[in-house]
Amino acid sequence: MHWLQLSLQGFDIKRVLVALLLSFGLAQIVAGVYILTFRGLSYTRTVVHSMAVGSLVPCMLLMAIGNNLAAGVGVVGGLALVRFRTTLRDPRDMLFIFAALGVGVACGAQAFGVAICGTGVFSLAALLLHYTSYGARREFDGLVRFTAATGAGSEAGIMKTLRGTCRSFALVTLREAAQGKAMEHAYQISIVDPELQTKLVHGLQELPGVTDVTLLLQEPTLDL
């Protein structure tokens, strides 16, 4: 029991609990912002759990090390032996995990003000970039394909339908089909209003000689 009493000397359970709980709470904010701003197809629940719980590990390590240099070197050496084979396809996932780990480090170092302010600024920056679509370079929303019979007089109707529903459009390919009796068109388009997508398809289908209308929408933020 003597060694247990020695190990408990200088142990402040309130300070430890405050650091751990604050680390866990701030990491949940980081994870919540990640969920709110996520765009793509590779969403995994384990990544979110890693953010929320992963902050506790560096928090515990820093409080356990304290000012003990030897303990710090030992912990670093032990971690160097661990090989992390999990790969993250999106650099953004890695960034959020590092943010959660940074929260744990700040709380473990008793820098509670830094942890709170850092979480707030990081969350606001992520939300700002998400809702302002910062970095997006999308010129077209999708691709529309259809086949128009030659000599059907539908060219004017096609142009009128595209101008009425699209902000901009550009012809990508034009090739013969049905042994020269029809032409296959492919246009890159930018839709004025998402509700006009159906109107565009129906408008083209109603034109004389136009068949096989297909609208392919693209989203540059998706990881296919």
In short:
The protein has 224 residues and is α+β, with helices and mostly antiparallel strands. It is built from 9 helices and 4 strands; from the N terminus they run αααααααβαββαβ. It has a 4-stranded antiparallel sheet, covered by helices on one side.
Please give the radius of gyration in angstroms.
Answer: 29 Å
List the domain count as a whole number: 2
Low-confidence stretches: 2-7, 220-224
Structural class: alpha+beta
Please count the beta strands (DSSP E, at least 2 residues each). Answer: 4
Describe the biggest sheet? 4 strands, antiparallel
Fraction of residues in β-strands: 15-25%
How far apart are the termini?
Answer: 60 Å
**Proportion of helical residues:** 40-55%
What overall form do the CA principal axes indicate? rod-shaped
Order of helices and strands: HHHHHHHEHEEHE
Strand order of the largest sheet: 2-3-1-4
Q: Let me know the average pLDDT.
A: 78
Count the DSSP helices: 9
Plain-language structure description:
By secondary structure, this protein is α+β, with helices and mostly antiparallel strands. The protein folds into 2 domains: 12-131, no CATH class; 142-217, ACT domain (Alpha-Beta Plaits), CATH 3.30.70. Helix content is 55%, strand content 17%. It contains 9 helices and 4 strands; from the N terminus they run αααααααβαββαβ. A 4-stranded antiparallel β-sheet has the order 2-3-1-4, covered by helices on one side. A hairpin with a 4-residue loop joins β2 (166-177) and β3 (182-191). α3 (45-54) packs parallel to α6 (91-108) and α8 (155-165) packs antiparallel against α9 (196-205). It is rod-shaped and about 90 Å long. It starts with a helix and ends in a 7-residue tail after the last strand.
